[in-house]
Amino acid sequence: WLFSIVKSDTDQDGDLSSLDKQTLGISDVGGKGYTEIVSDVDNLLGTAFKDGDILLIIYRSDGKNYLAHVNLLLREVESTEELPLGTEIK
């Protein structure tokens, strides 16, 4: 599973909402082995699987778009790269 968690009121409006920074985490299908993998996410833009055990996560943080390659077996980010998608992708 992929989780999007809001941990604190980063926009300081008094509410925890999707407008606050998010932390992305993963777990096995039963919910065990929860591991946080990416923090300071403004928007989750998309996900895809590559080769069965790599999860690709496209997200926006601090005005930039990123692609993270997550090894699902090790539950860790193998690499992250900035994507030149332009400012119109939010």
Account of the protein in words:
- This protein is mainly beta and 90 residues long.
- It is built from no helices and seven strands.
- The strands form two sheets. Strands 4-5-6-7 form a four-stranded antiparallel β-sheet, with no helix packed on it. Strands 1-2-3 form a three-stranded antiparallel β-sheet, with no helix packed on it.
- It is flat, with a radius of gyration of 13 Å.
- The mean pLDDT is 91.
Question: Layout of helices and strands, plus pairs?
Answer:
Blueprint: E1 2-5, E2 22-26, E3 35-41, E4 43-50, E5 54-61, E6 64-71, E7 76-83
List keywords for this structure.
flat; 3-stranded antiparallel beta sheet; 7 strands; mainly beta; 53% strand; 4-stranded antiparallel beta sheet; 90 residues
The chain-level mean pLDDT equals: 91
Please state how the strands of the largest beta sheet are arranged side by side.
Answer: 4-5-6-7
Low-confidence stretches: none
Helix content: under 10%
Structural category: mainly beta
- The gyration radius over C-alpha positions equals 13 Å
- As a percent range, the share of strand residues is over 45%
Give the tally of β-strands.
7
* Approximate shape: flat
Terminal Cα span: 23 Å
What order do the SSEs take from the amino end to the carboxyl end, as H and E? EEEEEEE
Helical region count? 0
How many strands, which pairing sense, and closed or not: the largest β-sheet? 4 strands, antiparallel
